[in-house]
Specification:
It is a single chain. With 754 residues, the protein is mainly α. Helix content is 71%, strand content 3%. It is built from 29 helices and 6 strands. It has helices spanning 3-39, 58-82, 90-94, 102-126, 145-169, 174-204, 215-240, 245-253, 256-263, 272-281, 286-302, 309-317, 320-334, 342-357, 363-370, 372-384, 388-407, 417-442, 446-464, 487-521, 531-565, 578-583, 604-621, 623-633, 635-640, 645-671, 682-692, 704-723, 731-753, and strands at 470-472, 482-486, 572-577, 588-589, 593-594, 673-675. The strands form 3 sheets. Strands 1-6 form a two-stranded antiparallel ribbon. Strand 4 and strand 5 form a beta hairpin. Mean pLDDT is 80; it is low at 245-254 and 258-267.
């Protein structure tokens, strides 16, 4: 190693050692103070009935001994680190060329203590001494889902930590990697426990008081999480210090081949933190992933109400519209454009649907809206100088539309809800085509084009629903619109479902099977310390997916055969409210049973998630998705490859309009009304969700899953801020800060990737 490299390595080691010493010192102080407070009687633990202040119960004795010894051990470890000069000696230990260093002993002690604590928690929950969740009308011998999950997780994590300790004692090199991940996850757990304790402190302080009025209780709530966090964090730093040194040295001073292999980190052993950063760098929605996890953990520990089924169901239901539109907005943004008119178009779609059902739209107005694509075609034919016949037909059609819209006042009768829904979808598609047409024909930026259509489309409901009125279905009918579902239609839908599921399933399963075979064939050549675990999880994921796909196809096939056998009993299978089909409340779920009326979970959530799966497949597994990425990344290069750029952009505008139409139907079915301002401001919320999800305004980058997480973040913010008592007026400011942070994280991840 060169003198410069040696000096840099020594300086890095000294900085790391200083940080570790500070962490160990804080750990020792907190542990010793906790032991002193319990020993002095200022902090009472456990059952204190009939026990004087000078006597201690078993819980207090254990805390005094454990915290005191741990504080002294942390101090001793810190003193040992002061004697280290260049390396912690962990690599030499696993190479069988050195004794076990003190810092590795501390790491082993942390892992061992974690394993024992997890095992004790699992035993306490299993024996009924530690109750979790709702225990109303549940005997002590029975366990709820939370307790079963805690027992399984505790046993798993205990076994992992204790097995890692055994591997370290035996100098098994894979235990070095396992220890890193165990400590990393344990540090995150300690942070969550600390955060939970901090949020519980205000509830233990008298009204108008401060922490100084009850410092012992504040210490009790914060100390356990802080000790776990600091102990695992310093252990993680100690055990990862020497992990990548040889690679760094060879990348600086090795041979040409060694330097090339050192720069190739695809198969290198990396610390847990670096591995996570590399994986996030591969995802367009890195900011959304980090934000989603952070906010979910924050609100979960900040208030017990956040994880209640009512809160989670409300967060999902209230974001159905935003989530469905975000799918199309992401596709459009990846292709390099965006649409500001989605909010106004949502109002148009809902108005058309409710208006046709209640007979509040004239024939001329409906025809005028449906004629938008033909009008655009007429303009295009005139500009391009196409055949006179097409121009004459287009002009004649548009003249007829104008006459019908102005000279007649034909009032449409109440239409069937299915026909009304189709009419609303066609109107939305027409306006979507108009956006794409104006963008391509005029060359005006999409911001100006869609800003113009936003204002124009907003004027339609403002005129038709004037005076702040609301068009409500219940003002005209007492019962919802019922439709009859025939057995033949059910058979056709089941056949289409089987075909679609088979197409998507075979593509995904074939890819997973290829990956599984590659893992098996390259198992002996795979240097990863987690190759066995990765192979097991890959096989489990593949098996579960096969079972789900085959089971769904089997159920659909059984449905088809059952309905065919009952065709002789009548063609009608079911009569149901059309509103319930679109976005009715879910009354029960498999494996869960009946859902309380207080839980407002809508079937629209199911349609939303189905659309996410479909369009994620389209974006990642089809030629159209590849073309969308190519157009947004470099339109000139896409044209050179034979991609019709204009067609892709217009198609994506129409796709956005289709999804806006779907969202409008679900929104109208839930509220059964429409007002002139429906959808106002929705366009910025959708764009914000897609940006948080990793999409670039310049195009060429993004994902549907990222947009889904972006919408989830919106939902969590809306629900969580209310539950913790934050002023609702701060919502927009906080969302703005989250957008900024998500963009910064996404930019950082792209720099790492490149």
């Amino acid at each position: 190693m060169s003198s410069y490299a040696a000096t840099a390595a020594r300086a890095s080691f000294n900085r790391s050692r200083t940080t570790n010493l500070i962490l160990l010192l804080i750990t020792a102080i907190v542990s010793l103070v906790l032991a002193e407070q319990v020993a002095a009687g200022w902090l009472a633990l456990g059952d204190r009935a009939n026990i004087s202040r000078r006597e201690f119960n078993l819980t207090e004795i254990v805390v005094i001994a454990g915290a005191g010894l741990w504080g002294l051990y942390a101090l001793w470890t810190g003193l040992s680190l002061l004697r280290q000069r260049e390396s912690y000696g962990i690599r030499e230990y696993f190479d069988d060329s050195g004794s076990r260093p003190t810092n590795l002993s501390f790491t082993t002690a942390v892992l061992g203590a974690t394993g024992v604590i997890c095992l004790l928690i699992a035993v306490q929950v299993a024996t009924g001494w530690l109750a979790l969740g709702d225990r109303v009308n549940i005997s002590r011998r029975e366990l709820n889902f939370l307790e079963i999950g805690t027992i399984l997780l505790g046993l798993f994590w205990s076994g992992l930590c204790l097995r890692t300790v055994l591997g370290i004692v035996r100098r098994e090199r894979p235990s070095w990697s396992w220890a890193q991940w165990g400590l990393f996850i344990s540090a995150l757990t300690g942070g969550i426990i600390l955060l939970s304790g901090v949020f519980d402190i205000p509830g233990m302080i008298p009204r108008g008081g401060t922490i100084a009025d009850n410092p012992a209780t504040a210490l009790l709530l914060a100390a356990p999480g802080l000790i776990i966090l600091l102990s695992t964090l310093v252990s993680y730093r100690l055990i990862t210090q020497d992990y990548g040194d040889p690679m760094v040295q060879k990348s600086i001073s090795g041979s040409v081949g060694e330097r090339a292999r050192a720069r190739d980190i695809s198969s290198a052993r990396l610390p847990a933190g670096q591995s996570i950063r590399n994986q996030l760098a591969k995802s367009p929605g890195a900011g959304a992933i980090i934000g989603f996890v952070a906010l979910f953990v924050f609100f979960s520990v900040a208030t017990d109400l956040f994880l209640q089924p009512q809160s989670l169901a409300g967060a999902l239901t209230n974001n159905i519209t935003r989530g469905i539109i975000a799918i199309g907005a992401t596709m459009l943004m990846i292709s390099g454009e965006f649409d500001l008119s989605v909010g106004s178009l949502l109002g148009i779609g809902g108005l058309t649907f409710i208006g046709l059902i209640t007979a509040q739209l004239t024939f001329g107005l409906l025809l005028a809206m449906l004629s938008i694509p033909v009008t655009c075609w007429v303009i295009g034919a005139f500009v391009d100088g196409r055949s006179a016949r097409g121009l004459i037909v287009g002009v004649g059609w548009y003249a007829f539309v104008l006459v019908a819209g102005t000279a007649t006042g034909w009032q449409l009768p109440p239409l069937d809800p299915v026909i009304s829904a189709v009419g609303a979808m066609l109107v939305c598609i027409g306006f979507g085509y108009m956006n794409g047409f104006l963008l391509i024909r005029t060359g005006i930026p999409s911001f100006i084009v869609t800003l113009s259509t936003l204002l124009m489309l907003r004027g339609i409901p403002l005129v038709l629903i004037a005076g702040g009125k609301t068009l409500r279905y219940v003002d005209y009918y007492n019962e919802p619109p019922f439709i009859s579902i025939s057995r033949i239609l059910l058979i056709v839908v089941a056949v289409v479902f089987i075909g679609g599921l088979g197409l998507i399933g075979q593509s995904v399963i074939r890819g997973l099977w290829t990956g599984f075979r590659n893992r098996v064939d390259n198992y002996d050549r795979n240097p990863s310390d987690f190759r066995t675990l990765a192979l097991i999880f890959h096989g489990m994921y593949l098996s579960a997916l096969v079972v789900i796909v085959v089971g769904a196809i089997f159920l659909m096939a059984g449905t088809i055969l059952d309905q065919i056998s009952q065709l002789g009993q009548g063609s009608t299978f079911l009569q149901i409210s059309f509103f319930d089909i679109l976005n009715g409340r879910i009354g029960s779920l498999p494996l869960i049973g009946e859902i309380s009326r207080e839980i407002n979970l809508r079937i629209g959530v199911f349609w939303w998630l189905v659309l996410v799966v479909i369009f994620q497949f389209v974006l990642q597994q089809t030629r159209y998705g590849n073309a969308t990425f190519a157009v947004g990344g470099n339109a000139g290069a896409a044209r050179a490859q034979g991609i019709n750029v204009n067609r892709i952009k217009i198609s994506n505008y129409m796709l956005v309009a289709v999804l806006v139409g779907v969202a409008a139907l679900l929104d109208a079915a839930r509220l059964q009304s429409i007002d002139a301002l429906r959808g106002t401001g929705l366009e910025l919320e959708v764009i914000a969700a897609t940006v948080i999800g990793g999409a670039l305004l310049s195009g060429g980058y993004g994902s549907i899953i990222g947009a889904l997480l972006g919408v989830f973040i919106f939902g969590m913010m809306q629900t969580g801020l209310v539950l913790i008592g934050v002023d609702a007026r701060l919502f927009d400011a906080i969302i703005g800060a989250i957008i900024l942070m998500a963009v910064v994280i996404n930019s950082w991840s792209r720099r790492i990737k490149t």
